Amino acid sequence: MHRVAGREMRKLILAVTLMTLFLVLGVIAYFMTDVILTTNNNIEKNKQMVLDKTVMTIKDLGMHTSQIGSNTKFLGMLNPDILNQILHGEAQPLYDLVLQLAAVTNPLEYVGIIADGEVVDYLMPSGLEVDPSELPDMPSGEDYVVLDSLADKEGYFVSVFYAIDLSSYGFGKFYVNDIVDRTAEMQEIDDYFVSQRNDLIVRMSVAAGIAVLLTLLITTFGLRYFTYRYIMKPVEKLNRMAEDIADGTFEGEVEVDRESAFAALQGLLRSGQLILRRMDKEIE
Fold first, then answer.
1. Which residues contact 217 (CB under 8 A, 6 or more apart)?
2. For a disulfide at 162, which of 23, 56, 62, 195, Cβ 3.0-4.6 Å?
3. How many beta carbons lie within 10 A of that of residue 266, not counting itself?
4. Phi-psi region for residue 146, left (φ > 0), alpha (ψ -120 to 50) or beta?
5. Comparing C-alpha atoms, which of 57, 59, 174, 66 is closest to residue 122?
6. Own/partner pairs for 62-71, CB < 8 Å, 24+ apart?
7. Rounded distance, CA 272 to CA 279, Å?
8. CATH 3.30.450 location in the chain
């Protein structure tokens, strides 16, 4: 009897332990997955914010550049010879002026002038050797393109296009292409959030290890203790009562607890006790 009960107890503990471990590991896996997905979303969201801010800043510059013709204070600061050439309709001095304005207001890798679909002038403020013919064309429906390389340099580059309309001054409408390097900013975002994610994963892994250890302790020792106390011990008591009743050495009455899960067995023993007493009286 004890041998079978021991085997059944081990099976019960193993089953409960595995179920509890699967539950704990499932919860841990859920939260780790949530941390990873949330971190990735935060990375993408912050990168998009940097991208949007970059595009907005450069386009604002283009808007102000379009107003240079009406800014008499600015025109008064120009070299008279250059101003005279521009006023006489020469486009090249104007293009050079636009390029210089773009270069001094933003840390650009490249700035180019596009007129009638062709690059008519360009400047490389950072010294990076850029071939305009290898750059992507101006996108339709969008005002920027993200590049993962520029010339022989890998990174995160934002190529922004904006229009400058000087038709009222006889120059027509042309486009400016500014390319700015945002590799460092994007790397900072990656480093910050990845570091946070890794730190959380390490702490959650430690917590997971503790949770698994506690689960094993609870299911191994706790379950064994409570199972013995509330199941095995009452069963052993009933077994002893049955043996004593059969031997005729049981003293007292078998009590039946109607709220107990063993009420049926208790009732059976009580009935057996009464039958044996009746048989003893008949024999006497």
1. none
2. 62
3. 19
4. beta
5. 174
6. 62/162, 62/163, 62/164, 62/176, 63/162, 65/98, 65/101, 65/102, 65/164, 65/176, 66/163, 66/164, 66/165, 66/166, 68/97, 68/101, 69/166, 69/168, 69/169
7. 10
8. 66-181
- Enumerate residues 6+ apart whose C-beta is below 8 A from 10: none
Helix (H) / strand (E) containing 94: helix 91-105
Q: Are 38 and 189 in contact (CB under 8 A)?
A: no
Rounded to whole angstroms, the Cα distance separating 130 from 150 reads: 7
d(CA 185, CA 217): 48
Compute the CA torsion angle 163, 168, 169, 174 (nearest 10 deg): 20
Rounded mean pLDDT for each run of 10 residues along the chain, 284 residues in total: 56 82 89 92 95 91 67 54 65 80 85 88 87 82 87 92 78 87 95 93 90 84 78 76 71 70 71 70 64
CA distance 48 to 162: 19
Per CATH, is 66-181 categorized as 3.30.450? Answer: yes
The tokens for 202 are 């390490």
Q: What is the CA radius of gyration of the chain?
A: 43
Backbone angles phi, psi at 113, to 5 degrees: -105, 130
Query: pLDDT digits over 35-93, tens only?
Result: 999 999 999 999 999 999 999 988 888 777 766 654 545 555 555 676 666 666 677 87
Q: What are phi and psi of 93, to 5 degrees?
A: -60, -35
Does the predicted model carry a pTM greater than 0.70? no
Return d(Cα 18, Cα 23) in angstroms, integer. 9
